[in-house]
Amino acid sequence: MRKAVSSAIALLILAEALAAGSAARAETGCHESSDYLVVERSRDDGFADFLVRKKTASSTRIACAFSPQPKDFRPKESKPYGFSFVALSGRHLALEISDTNGTQVPRVRIYDLDKQSVLQDIEDVFEIGEEASEKGFDFWVGSKTEPTKENCPDYAEEIGAESSESQIVLLQKATFDFASLKVVDSTEMKCVSWAD
Questions:
Q1: Where residue 7 falls among pLDDT bands split at 50, 70, 90?
Q2: Cα(14)–Cα(11) distance, rounded to whole angstroms?
Q3: Domain membership of residue 139 as a residue range
Q4: Claim to verify: residue 107 and residue 40 sit in the same structural domain
Q5: Which of 14, 24, 89, 187 is the most exposed place for a label (fewest CB within 10 A)?
Q6: How many structural domains compose the chain?
């Protein structure tokens, strides 16, 4: 009986050591605004975990380490969703939330870090621009206009085809502005092929 118990304890210690080693190997990076430090730790599934720490007068330089403290904020979402960093501006953080199974169009969530709460969700975000900054970020959402052979000429053969494994979607460009905390639509459109 003692041998079985000690074997079980040894297995438990080994499992904890392996988990700690895996966490240590995860890549860590940081994003910083005037008010907050956001620590990003990569996950095996290609997404990341985030830890948000408020700066104080005495902590202008905070170590870039994923070591949760009681006052830290940890954005959470039920599985099978994963987070990716979009932008940080002052007390506002934008994270992309994706279905890890790839069956749903991602959304972008804007957090008010002072309140540790969700400010708003931007649904159906097909793409996010590469030039995200503390001023804002561009993104592409599904348009209410149906794709046709006229407005999506590059995909004319696929529109309406029953055998197509993907659907053609007409996207509209928009910008999230951190100063006003509003989405500003543009008139720029493009077509993409989207696989369910």
A1: very low
A2: 5
A3: 132-196
A4: yes
A5: 187
A6: 2
